[in-house]
Design a protein that fits this description.
alpha/beta; six-stranded mixed beta sheet; elongated
């Protein structure tokens, strides 16, 4: 009886020893936790931007297009949506096909949807990367000057990097570009004057280490004044 009890104690002790993580495992786990934030942006994807101008009033074509967007038909691409006062009847869809060149469709139907997706796929083939590869790039934009958007406070792009696998609104982009790994780079007052498209372009350029400093405004450098010794 006593021997059985002794064996039971030994088994319990062994189980307790097995469930306790080793110091090496604890150290690795802590390192992974500490690096999650820094790696989060490395997991983002750069996608082609489809520009969609919706009419000022709703109609069947606009409703079908919005339904397809909500259903995820265009999830492989970034979407820049605007509501144009000039557009009174049908939506306008623009897909970049070269430097400052777009293929444009007016209205929306199954045939137009097929053509838009085919054109976008030809410009931005979706690459299936190995799971071990951290950075996934669906579209790589060439570094080249552009004469378009001369009135823009920051040049637009035909591709955007995601933020948390999404394309946030203007307010969220201002917050993102003034915190985390972007903190202290750009003047917050200037960021607050940019449009959503300009903020996404700036964020994408910063991802690719090619910020256009002819347009971007750096944060003011803080310099400490020397303390004079009154003695």
């Amino acid at each position: 009886m006593s021997s059985g009890f002794a064996v039971g104690q030994e088994v319990t002790a062994n189980l307790q020893a097995e469930v306790q993580p080793s110091e090496v495992l604890q150290e690795v786990t802590q390192q992974e936790a500490d690096s999650q934030d820094s790696q989060s942006e490395d997991l983002e994807i750069c996608r082609l931007v489809l520009k969609i101008d919706f009419p000022n009033v709703n109609n069947s074509a606009a409703s079908r297009l919005r339904a397809d967007i909500a259903a995820g038909v265009y999830d492989d691409y970034a979407i820049s949506q605007t509501r144009s006062r000039r557009r009174k009847k049908s939506p306008k869809i623009s897909v970049p096909v070269g430097r400052n060149r777009y293929r444009v469709w007016y209205g929306y139907s199954g045939k137009i949807r097929t053509a838009v997706l085919a054109t976008a796929a030809a410009q931005s083939p979706i690459k299936k990367e190995k799971s071990s590869q951290v950075a996934q790039v669906a579209y790589v934009e060439k570094t080249e000057s552009s004469d378009t958007n001369q009135d823009a406070k920051y040049p637009h792009r035909s591709s955007w990097w995601t933020v948390g696998k999404r394309y946030p609104d203007r307010e969220a982009m201002v917050k993102h570009l003034s915190s985390g790994q972007h903190e202290g780079i750009f003047a917050i007052e200037w960021l607050e004057t940019l449009t959503r498209d300009e903020l996404h372009a700036l964020h994408s350029d910063d991802h690719e280490k090619k910020v256009n400093w002819n347009h971007a405004v750096r944060t003011a450098a803080v310099t400490s004044k020397p303390v004079l010794n009154e003695d």
